[in-house]
Amino acid sequence: MWGRRIASTRCAGLRCCPARVSSRPLRPVSSLSRPSPSSLPSKPHLAPPSRSPLYLRTLSACSAKPAISFTPKRHCSSEFRVMALQDREILPSEVKPLHYGISLFDLQLGGSWSYKGIVKISSKVNGPTKQVVLNAKEIEVQHAEILGTDGAELTKASDITYDKKSERVTLKFLDDLPQSDIVVSISFTGTMNNSMAGFYRSKYKSAVEASPDTPKEGDFHYMLSTQFESCDARRAFPCFDEPNLKATFDFEIEVPKGQTAISNMPVKSERSGSKPELKVVSFDTTPVMSTYLLAWAVGDFDYVEAFTERKYQGKSIPVRVYTTKGLKEQARFALECAHKTVDYFSEVFEIEYPLPKADLLAVHEFAMGAMENWGLVTYRTTAVLFDEGKSDTRYKNRIAYVVAHELAHQWFGNLVTMDWWDELWLNEGFATWVGWLAVDHFYPEWNIWSQFVAEGVQQAFQLDSLRASHPIQVPVKNALEVDQIFDHISYLKGSSVIRMLSTHLGRETFLKGVAQYLKAHAYGNATTNDLWSALSEASKQDVNSFMDPWIRKIGFPVVTVAEETGKVNVRQNRFLSTGDPKPEEDQTTWWIPLGIKSGTELVAQEPRALVSRADTIEGIGEDSFYKINKDLSGFYRTNYPASRLEKLGQSLDSLSTEDKIGLIGDAAALAVSGEGSTAALLSLLEGFKDEKNYLVWSQISSSVGNLRSVFSQNETVAQGLKNFARALSSPAADKIGWEFKADEDYLTVQLRKLLISMSGLAGNESIVAEAKRRFDLWATGKDKGAVHTNLRSTIFSIAVSEGTRSEFDAVKDEYLKTDSVDGKEICLSALGRTKYAELVNEYLDFVFSDKVAIQDVHNGAVSLAANSKVRHLLWEYLKNNWKFVEARLSANNVVFERFVRMGLSKFADHGIEGDIASFFQNKDTGVYDRALVIVADSIRTNANYKERDEKQALEWLQAHGYA
């Protein structure tokens, strides 16, 4: 799954806060007081359509590649797993699922939105028991019985009880169940909720006239789809909802004849339903897989289709992208990416794509970014649709990556699944890295690995530098806790560490080991140690010995460099953003690949690693040029002496793009921790005025933006940093200009947007004037083309920031009427740039109204948190309207956690830190308690930095003419 931290559910029956419209003049916040605070083809990569894995067989390969056993590998032999089982709250082991037959019918497409279902679970009874315990949430079981494999009734449930806290249903029987193969048959009812979890409904406004039997309420039509990861299959049907309880699945659903039903596998048959206007759609049997990967969808769908160039069993595989009608042409780019990526990964992993089809589906309301359901990947619309001529080209980059990430999961995660949720990183860290690998393969001109360093690695550093971080492999006792570890540690630190390892082993060797791992554990479950074993065998190195601390220990190191003539001394310690690791927090000795390049030709030295707390490197030193951590391939910060940092800043032509990004990122982080200084950072940044690379500028902008955020409450320092940002970016902005050329490359397009935004928001008068001119032409309708598609976010943000109500209302109106797939995200972010208190509160009323999809509410939090003039008003609003906010967000835990974390982490005031802690002290914070720890740690870090370096920053700015 990608982007677990991107959005939530639509709550029915909540009030809509009216906008507070006033004719009174607006007062900038700076003038206000602030608070202190068909059937399966027979090929070696598919389970045959038998109803029980007991009959799974090993099939011979159609090529020279080794055959893959279909027998589910449910149990890993490692001692670690045996011990781990004792620390997990899991279902009783006496009954294990083998195969599910699921039938859903009597769907109420409106009103109660209820449905009925029957699930028949072929199971193995392994020990004496008088009960069957399954997972169920918001499901009512009407009837349960035990059948023999011949379908004969053996016994009926004498009692059915629920445990809402553990989300379980217990079926009790008077006698012991036979210790053999049985079928657990359950009749139940459920609800197609609007919480973006389980089996749920999404509302949308149809782009064309919808089919007459498309569900509709009011002005909105509805589509139906599922979201089961992590623990929400249980919201759709009673099941054994744990990742290592794999089974095969038969699924059928009764739907209106005009609607399209899709699922993991191809349609097997259609028959008449219980009413003339209904049909029952049945699907082929799935391979053995985890419950969280099951999926289905129903809607007024259309699709675009392509076929793989590579042949599978002599045939190309159909690849489709489904959308609601009227949108399919916007799926062309995703389709282009998808069919090529299926072929690419089939080659890279040395295993053919394991299913007979690959479907992608655009879902109108979606809490995350995408979900890797086997054979039916679901996406939020902005992660799969691109409207040529209307969409920002940045979204092409996003779509290519998200498509690749989810398709990587078809092997790494679906074919081979983590044994338990504590090894989530096995799925997500690898899919993140290999997703970037695929995009780099298809779009080398995008300089993807530099983007990864600027975005992925730096974000991972930021979270992992907090005391509130956690190991990549984090203990998970109860699966219901897992939502809060779908974060930058599992995804971005995990992928950064994999990049480090693949660089060390060599990419070819690394991928060879991965292929061996997948073949050995296909259709089963595996652990981190299983991956290390395969990589060790492929590389002839003891991978576990040097990777174990990276996975199981919290944090990462900083390598401190001390120079002497002809040599340098290096020392490793844990890096914390507060700069104060306690002895007990600094006990890990990491294996650190030093990646040294030196000399006038910047020749890479022989691979060398720091494997102790300290070491000495001969042959380089204060009298020679050198750079540690070439291309930022290692996951660590480097702390150079001030003189060396200055020399590196004067030798930018000798550094790679990744080196430059790492240099700036390290200097900025070390300034925050106190191991470096703000003066050194500002001096380094001054040397980048002539930089031409977008991705380097992205890091520059991020670092300067953090400075402006932290020191925003000191007016003199804030103005000095604004002047600094303007002086730094304006020459490059003026040089690149406003006009786009027809043959302009992607990175140049993004650079123009970034430079105009950075310079304009720093007060460059000529850029502000031009942005206002173009905005006025667009807003008045005189020239709708005055605002280029790729400059909407920039021009809208400058106009709202520098304007008053008229600009705010114009962007808000655009939000309400835009048909651009990315337009709502762009407008919502721009609206948060206002400097007026009255408009901020009106904006928040709007964000929490039913005009804004819950999945997008976090954009409001991000935008206001980044607006240092008014971010305190966001906190005041939350306190004053908490019951309303809580009701609006509580239907989806992922959304709730994301809003709290993103909205409150940017403060730099100990008083507000205390106020937040006090406010939440007596509240039930179970779904976002980790977010609150991150918030407190982040605010504390910012506040300490501000107090320590504020005076120094002012002195530097005054000395250099900025303040």
From TrEMBL:
Residues 333-550 form the Peptidase M1 membrane alanine aminopeptidase domain. Binds 1 zinc ion per subunit. Gene3D superfamilies: 1.25.50.20, 2.60.40.1910, Neutral Protease Domain 2, tricorn interacting facor f3 domain. The keyword Hydrolase applies. Residues 25-45 have a biased composition (Low complexity). Keywords: Aminopeptidase, Hydrolase, Metal-binding, Metalloprotease, Protease, Zinc. Residues 97-293 form the Aminopeptidase N-like N-terminal domain. Its EC number is 3.4.11.-. This is Aminopeptidase. It comes from Aspergillus keveii. The lineage of its organism: Eukaryota, Fungi, Dikarya, Ascomycota, Pezizomycotina.
